[in-house]
User: Fold this.
Amino acid sequence: MLAVTPEGDASHAALVDNLAASIYKQGELANAAQDYRAAADHFLRIRTAAPTSTIRAAAEYDAGAALIRLQGLDGGAQACSKRFAAAYPEHKLQREATRQIAYAYRESGQLSRAAGEYDRIASESEDPALRSEALLVAGRPLRAVQAQDRALDVYLRYVNEFPGRSSRPWRPASRSPRSARRRTTSRSIRQELQDIVRIDADAGSERTARTRTLAARSALVLAEQLYREFVAVKLPQPFETSLQNKKQRMDATIEAMNRLVAYEIADVTAAATFYMAETYLDFSRALAASERPADLQPAEKEAYELALEEEAFPFEEKAIGVHEKNVELLQAGVLNAWTEKSLGKLARADAGSATRKTS
Assistant:
């Protein structure tokens, strides 16, 4: 039917799309059967059989994805994926295409090239959301290969290009410290850490950069234990009693983190700053998730919810402000896991805000 239908005919476009859809379905079936070579061949056939179809771009993306599953980024897979990126620079699948190329590089150990893919998109894309995500993600593989200068450059580009992205409230999920740190629950290990802190504090003129660094990192592990204990406290009824317990633990955690800053060890300062922000955020979340009194009438419940929200919101704002302090450290050249985590928190906050605005 398509062969005998003139291109100017009103039904021609629909016939082209029907043919493309039929071929695309064959590609989907081959994909489902994990026959990625056949899947790629079907998807690529749309380019010649139905070049004007509306699903051609998606088919070429899927062809690249199938070839990457089959052979990584060798040969045709790389060419196919890059052809899609060049032909459809503003397509909604562009971000996923970049991710799959970078993922394949990362899986094959080519971390610098993975970062390069993200960096390229950050430089070429006209989509601010795509650029900001690409810049943020590009730094991770660079840090993995110890390319600190390049990673710092990428993060500073992010901060300079998107200076307002950390100004909105959010509720990201809190991450627990590394499980290895839980060994501080052992009394003997905790005592050893406390001894290191005490010895450095009493060293006087014999205090050295090494003892200060060891003490700072020991104090950080102890402070992390306070943070974990604080996070574990929920707010059941009676509310005033549990709130007092939670607040006392919050104050103790913030005080411990503040003491860490006096050591003037960059990575410890950044860690303490990160945990202070997360402490404020956890307190805000705990208020929002607290157990409500069982005997509230509808009007009373509405007033209670409003009061909780008003009490919780300032702690969200504090969390944002403290995470931004770590971004200031980043701008000053302090690049480590903690400044990177704070930047990631602020970036996800912006993404979440943008999503809520469009929904």
